[in-house]
Structure prediction request, 461 residues.
Amino acid sequence: MYSRKNQRDLTRTEKKRLVDAILELKRSGRYDDFVSLHRQYYVTDAESRPRPAHMTPSFFPWHRRYLLEFEKALRAVDPRVSIPYWDWTRDNTASSSLWADDFLGGNGRPGDRQVMTGPFAYRQGNWRIRAGVTDDPFLRRNFGRPSSPVTLPAAADVERALKDPVYDTEPWNSVSTTGFRNRIEGWGIRGGRGVANHNRVHRWIGGSMAGAASPDDPVFWLHHAFIDLLWTRWQKAHPRSRYLPARELPAGDPQRDRIFPLDRPMPPWDVAPSQLMDHSRLYRYV
Amino acid sequence: MNPTDGTKGEPAGAPRPARRAVLRTAFTAAVIAGTGGALAPVLLGTQGPAGADRERGAVGPERFSELYKGREIRGTVTTTVPAGAQPYAAAPPDDGKQPHAGAQPYAGEAGAAAAVTGTEVSVDGRPLHVMRRADGSYLSTVNHYESFPTLLETARAAVDELGPAQLSAASPHTI
Ligand SMILES: [Cu+2]
Prediction:
């Protein structure tokens, strides 16, 4: 049992330990395996393949497990480390301590958007992007995307999602208009709402985080820890609500073989959403 | 929870084979050759049955070639596979464990989007990998968390996000 803290509350020493553990995973090559795994499981809802990770009810449990694997790797390097969370409704500017030189470094520079500060700056020699979307070997960020400005989600956006008592709704994909899951995952709905919450944060950071290799930016983990915390908050707010779909969909439902109801094991770990509903014996949020 | 060691999936970054011409369909649309410098998406008639046009909806097959913020963007659709053309024609290309490198796409259910087969989008000659959502909109490897109604908008958004960067020539395809 360990704690996941708000990143704004970390001490200098805690930040340094986390950064050092991440750099060690990068050095050993394991970090890039995590990046590839996320990319490999990016399956869209126009495809007929199973999609455990995105545009799908199991968005929350899949990423919970993915973070647990990453955290296990970090803690094998340094058992005092855990993944902190970034509450982007609160620390919502480029001057947040999150982006300081002693933690994740700042925005990309004008022009090539290369991150020049902090431990993940290319020039520090420890953070080479190997299989990114572009040829660039450096981490890219483009806060707020000035060419077509985007803001971070507000607390009210999160509140609206948390108020929805239904976990997810058919058609169980990126066009589900109600339900907590897609309100947080945040796919834009044509003629309805715009890009929201989880997706919007990826977009606000921009550069590496906007694309297929988003975990190349270590902020990915802090962002997703907050998403994981929001799931826990939703569960507490709606104690009688349950993960949906609870059972296999009927034969003939186009989503039947593509999504993961409560008890269907998710690749690559063969762990069902039902096994990931409660994290309280492993970690807690403080 | 039940921690396991199975973090690794397939070999990291295994290149996926090209996916051209993997879908056999009677509804193959006209092959669009060349790019005439059209600045807007050009709607193209298809040779398929009446439903083929309709299901593409507002997102017609397009081709374009333009200079956008100094970058040459091109898009060509060579094949259109209507949704519903091959409902479950193939078993999921999957052993139930994980999406394969090289798994073949197959058409979705009626009403969902067609597969993006034969869709080629490029920025300065480098391929931009494009996927679709269930509503027919497009995403690219550059913009993985938002989608666009047309390929042209997808390509322009990619240029905006890329800045001066070149797409990776060896980008592992996820479809
Ligand atoms: Cu993800």
